[in-house]
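Example 3.2
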Amino acid sequence: MEMGRLRGMITGCGLKMVAMAAMLIDHTAYLLLGCGILRALPGEAPGYAGYYQMYQVMRCVGRAAFPIYAFLLTEGIAHTRDWKRYGLRLGMFALISEIPFDLLCFQQPVCLDGQNVFFTLLLGLLAVKGAEWAAGRASRAQHYPGEKSSLAWVVAAGLGCQAAVFLRTDYDASGVLLVVLLYLLRKTPLKQCIAGFFWLLVTEGRWHYAPGLAAAFLLIGLYNGECGSKRGKYAFYAFYPLHLAALYLIYRYMDATYWAVYFFRQ
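Structure, written as tokens:
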């Protein structure tokens, strides 16, 4: 167990469950409420204000998902026996998830305007491991090893951010830098949570999302350093593309039902 963690509060498995629930709530709000009900209802409709408030609350809850996943990634990087295999797994699910992600976000099977969050996490992993490799080389240098190690982290993080912006990944550069930040501060949990919270709050630029972000980092602060149950390990990965596909099918059903009712009322 890492120094500074509170024993017996929440395991890695518990954090994954919270992140999955928050992500499902967020994507449900985005697609079924934002792209569905709110788009279909006129702004002056009696129920519009209620649906809009529900949409805002659900999106706020959804802000808890990414910081938890980013934190769990840093824990995985720190403790995995084979980071290349870990990265391969992230890359595989990034490719599997891309069509469901494009359907949910852009309503088309292939769109280059944005890539799913697995790509962001993969770039975060590569940035951290690239920085560690370069910093290790620099530490053996005869001149200014400390400065060269710091430069290695800056360069690796910068390259990861550029790749995220170029690929237009979910959370883009701010997501990659969050992974790097949480990894560097992993031995000081309080600083890790405070820095992560303010980093996302500022880069998101949406202050009404603060409660969701605060809840995420509160739970991260209560992590006890234990992974918890390992059953259903790949189910946590598979949940992402599966829930995206399911929500899209529900959305298409709602859309078809709306137009059928509209047609028969004419």
